[in-house]
Amino acid sequence: MDVAEFELTRLSIGCTAEVVRISAEGLTRNRLLDLGLVPSTIVEAVRKSPAGDPVAYKIRGAIIALRSEESRLITVRPVI
Amino acid sequence: MTNLTAELEQVVRKAQKVRRRLGQVRDQVVRDIYRRGQEITEQAVRIHRAKGDLDRKIDNIVTSRILGYPLMLALLSLVFWLTISGANLPSAILAEVLFGFQDRLTALCQWLGAPTWLHGVLVLGLYRGLAWVVSVMLPPMAIFFPLFTFLEDLGYLPRVAFNLDKLFKEAGAHGKQVLTMCMGFGCNAAGVIACRIIESPRERLIAILTNNFVPCNGRFPTLIAMAAVLMGAFVSGYNSLAVAAIVAGVVVFGILVTLLVSWALSKTLLKGIPSTFTLELPPYRLPKIGSLLIRSVLDRTLFVLTRAVAVAAPAGAVTWALANIYIGDISLIGHLAGWLQGFGHLIGLDGFIILAFILGLPANEIVVPILIMSYLSHGSMLELDSIAALRQLLISNGWTWLTTLNMMLFSLLHFPCATTLLTIRKETGSAKWTVLAALIPTGVAIAVCFLVTQIARAFGLV
Predict the structure, then answer these.
(1) How far, in Å, CA of A19 to CA of A21, rounded?
(2) Fold for the domain defined by A6-78
(3) How far is CA B451 from CA A79, B355, B454, B456, in A?
(4) Is A62 helix (H, G, I), strand (E, B) or coil?
(5) B-contacting residues of A 61-80, CB under 8 Å?
(6) CB contact (8 A) between residue A31 and residue B64
(7) N or C: where does chain A have the smaller number of CB atoms within 10 Å of the terminal CB?
(8) CA neighbor of B297 nearest in space, from B447, B460, B145, B411
(9) What's the pLDDT score for residue A1?
C-alpha cells in the first residue's frame, strides 16, 4: 500500500506523523538531524504561535519550534 | 591554464562525490545513535503524564491567539510596576541616610579645615554622585533582577521568542534576537555577548547593532524617574500604575524601533534572507528561590552596581570640577552647554542634557546625576532627596512635559555606553560595525526627538 507523503508544514495541530526524509542541506540539515529528526521519528504538531508561524512540534519528548521554511523541508507520512 | 581549470573542476567534482557519500554515512550514524537512545529510553525512563499536561495547559494560555500578546504586555507592566512601587520606600530611606551622611562629611571637612575646593570635589562631587547612584539604582535593581531571573528560570522567555518570531522573521532577523534583547534589559553589553546564540553572522550583527534599543538597567532608573516627574508635574497626580504603564510604553516603542531598524538593516547594509530557526520550548520549572536570589542579587545586582559606582564616583568629581572652574563669568560646564544649546533646543532638549549624555558615555547610570549637578551648580542649592525635589529642579530649569518625554526617548535610543561599545568591538572584531553601532542609534534618537518636538511645537502643544 502506498501511503501519501506530505510536507510537515501541512500537518494539522494535534496530529502525528512519521518522518520519511529531510531534503534540507548544509547547516540546516545538521540542525534538524541534531534535533533527532531522522527517518522513522514520530513528530506531533503541538501548537501554532499566535502569529501562525512558527509551529511547535513534539520531537522525541522535546517541544521544538520550527519556522515554515524549515518544516517545508521535512517530508512525513501518516502513522499507520 | 585551461588544463589547470579542468583539473580543478575534477577535484571539485570528486570532493562533492566524497561529501555526498560522507553525508549518507553521517545520516546513518545519527540514525543509529537515536535508535540506540530510543531503546535505552524505553527501558529506563518512565514519563509522568500529568506534568506534560500542565505544561500544555499553561502554553495554551501564554501562546494563545487572543491572550498571548496581551499577557506578555501585562507581565512586562507587572514587572515594572512591582519594581517601581516596591523601590519607592527603600529608595527614600537610602537617600535620607546617604544624604544625611553628606552633612556629617561637610561638618568633618569644616572641622579639619579642608579647603573649599577639596570639600567640593570630594563631598559635593564624588560623594553626592555616589549617593544618588546607590539610592536610585540599588532598590529597583534588587527587585527587577530577581523578578526577571524568575521568568527566565521558569521557562517563560522562550515562549516570548515563540510568540514574537513572526515579527522578527518579517524584519529579516532571528527569533532568538528576543532572547538577546531580554538579556539587554539587564545590561546591553551582556545582551551583545548573548548574540553568540545566533549562528548566522548576518542576523547576529543585526541583533548586536539593535540591542541598545532595549533599555538596560542603567537607564531604567532614568526612565522611571522621568516617568514619575512627568506624572506629578505635567499630568495629574502620581500613580505608580501609570508610571509603570509609561515605562512599559517606552519599552514597547523601543521594541518597535528594534524591528524597524532590523528591517532596514536587512534591506540595506546586511542584505539576506533569514536563516535556520529552531527553538526549544523547555518544560516549565518552578525556580529554586534561594539560588535565584543569590544569582540575581550577587551576580547581577552587585556586579552592575559596582560598575556604576566605580564610574559614578570619578564622574561626579569631574562634573563638579567642570561646574566650578570658571572662564570669565561662566563655568566650564556652562560654556559647553551653551555651545550645545542650539542643537539641544532643536530636538526638544537643552545643552545641559546633551552634555550629560556625552559625559555619561562611560555608563548610562550617571547621566541624571551629572545633569542634576550641572543644574545645581548654576542655580539654587537644594537637597535632592526625592522625586518631588527633582521635579522642582527640572521645572525651574525650564523643563516641560516635552523635555521630559524627549529625555526618555533620547535615553532609550541614543548611543550605547562605552562598555557596550567595547564589547561590540570585541564581538564583531570590526571598527566599522562598532562605529555604526554608535551612529545608528544616535541618528535614530536625534530623528525621533526632532520629529516629536517639531510636531508638538507646530500644533502648539507646548
Answers:
(1) 6
(2) SH3 type barrels. (2.30.30)
(3) 59, 21, 5, 8
(4) strand
(5) 61-67, 69-70
(6) no
(7) N
(8) B145
(9) 44
Distance (Å, rounded) from C-alpha B155 to C-alpha B280?
A: 10
In the predicted model, what is the mean pLDDT of residues B235-245? 75
Q: Quote the minimal CA–CA distance from B35 to chain A in Å.
A: 9
Contact residues, chain B, for A69 at CB < 8 Å: 274, 276-277
Residues of B with Cβ-Cβ distance to A67 under 8 angstroms: 165, 169, 175, 274, 277
Amino acid in position B362? P
Interface contact A33-B175, CB threshold 8 A: no
CA distances from A5 to A37, A77, A79, B316, B327 (A): 16, 5, 11, 70, 83
pLDDT for residue B381 = 43
Question: Could you give phi then psi for residue B24, rounded to 5 degrees?
Answer: -65, -40
Least confident of A31-45, B11-25, B192-206: B11-25
Q: In whole angstroms, what is the distance from residue B238 CA to residue A62 CA?
A: 47
Q: Rounded to whole angstroms, what are the CA distances from B75 to B241, B254, B340, B371?
A: 13, 17, 40, 32
What is the least distance, in Å, from the CA of A14 to any CA of chain B?
12
Q: Give ipTM to 2 decimals.
A: 0.91
Grid coordinates in use for B452? 516629536
Q: What distance in Å separates the CA atoms of residue B306 and residue B309, rounded to the nearest whole number? A: 5
- The answer to whether the CB atoms of B38 and A60 lie below 8 A apart is yes
The string of pLDDT tens digits covering residues B299-333 is: 777 877 787 778 777 887 888 888 888 888 888 88
Which one of A31, A56, A70 has the shortest CB-CB distance to B281? A56
